[in-house]
Each structure stands twice: as C-alpha cells, then as structure tokens.
Amino acid sequence: MTSQFISPGFKRRAREADSAFKERIPPGQYETKDFPVLSAGPTPRTPLDQWNFSIYGEIAEDLKWTWDEFLRLPRETVTVDIHCVTKWSKLDTVWTGVSVDTLLKDLNLEAQPGIGYLIAFCDGGYTTNLPLPDVRGGKAWIAYEYDGKPITPEHGGPARLLVPHLYFWKSAKWVRGLKLVAQNKAGFWESLGYHDYGDPWKEQRYAGD
Ligand SMILES: Nc1nc2c(c(=O)[nH]1)N[C@H]1C(S)=C(S)[C@@H](COP(=O)(O)O)O[C@H]1N2
Ligand SMILES: [Mo]
Predict the structure, then answer these.
(1) pTM score of the predicted model
(2) Ligand 2 midpoint to CA 169 (Å)
(3) Which residues pair with 31 in a beta bridge?
(4) I want to staple 135 with a disulfide (CB 3.0 to 4.6 A). Which of 14, 20, 100, 209 is the partner?
C-alpha cells in the first residue's frame, strides 16, 4: 500500500498515537520490553510460612499479617509504567497485590498528623524512604503477582512494594514492613547519593537534581 491510499485522518491518528506513547516515557529514559533485574545484594528466599508483613513505628497501634492473612485482603490488579533510574522504562506492567490504602485503613492516621514519612524494610536489609502521601490515595501497592503469576524471587517475590510514580528503586523488593515515622530518614540508595524523592518526570536521579 502506497501512501496515496492512506487517508490524512489515518496519518493524523497514527501520529497522535505515537506522540501519546512518547509522552509516557519520562525525560532521559528509553523503553525496554525486557524486565531487567537490579538488586544490590543476593536474592533472599524467605519461606512463606515464615513470611509476615508489619506496619509499625511511631503509631498508636501496630499491624501484622501472615502470608495467608495477606492473601485474604482485598486485592487489586493495576497496569502501570515503571521507570528505573538506570534509564529503562517499561510500559503497561501488570501487578496484583494489596493497596497500601487497604493496609493503613484501620490506623486512624488522621488523628496522628505528625506521621509524615515511612521507611520500607526488606529481607536482606534494603530500605527506602517515602513521604506518607506518596503511598496513599491509590498510588502504591504491596504486590505479589506480576503478569498474573507469583512475582519471581529476582523481581522481589514473594512481595514487593510498588510505587510506580517514583523511580523504581523506591519499589522495595522482598518488602516485609512499613515503618511510619515523623522524621524523614534516608534509605539505602538515598544515603548513597540518590535523590530523596525520585520523581522521574523531574529527573530527580541524584541528590541536588
Ligand atoms: N530489596 C531491594 N529492593 C530493591 C532493590 C534492591 O537492591 N533491594 N533495587 C531497587 C532498584 S534500584 C530497582 S531499579 C528495582 C529493580 O526491580 P527489578 O529487579 O524487579 O527490575 O528494585 C528496587 N528495589
Ligand atoms: Mo534502579
């Protein structure tokens, strides 16, 4: 088919689809269809009967779930784009897990306005810090399935934090708990010079960006 048979409307729609797609890749990023593995240490393998998930810290009441209890919580499946600070982005990744809103629901955090931050804790010792508002309002999940299957150990299984609107180092693999605190405190990469917040659309890669 030569171009004379392609209607102007078709060309315009193709152009629009192409630019809408490009608008999903933040500055300085490229798209990959692969799923690279980036881990700062060995892959932990915690048996599910020893796994639990805690919400604790400077709050009135702590919460803890076993694996079986966690699976019985309301689940959501989300399709999101992810952006690694090493410059790859992956579009339309599909995850299933528990919204952090669901986990925080019974804590009455509105009565504890001093709690502004959290630190995610993981098997293996990795940590990352986030402002509390960035994990509320449908922006973060504790995911246990990727593409309809259990998350593989390399990608953070049995469960990982998923915070797709920030660089992917904030999405802590092998996550075991969220510590809610009043004062912000740098996590693993943040204390090694990565940006405290990590907005990919503002290219907040390193401290000072
Ligand atoms: N526990 C833990 N979580 C982690 C990391 C890590 O080293 N340990 N690496 C982070 C970084 S830098 C990125 S880009 C993503 C990589 O996730 P992936 O290996 O599933 O692509 O996990 C993040 N979460
Ligand atoms: Mo990363």
Answers:
(1) 0.92
(2) 5
(3) 89
(4) 100
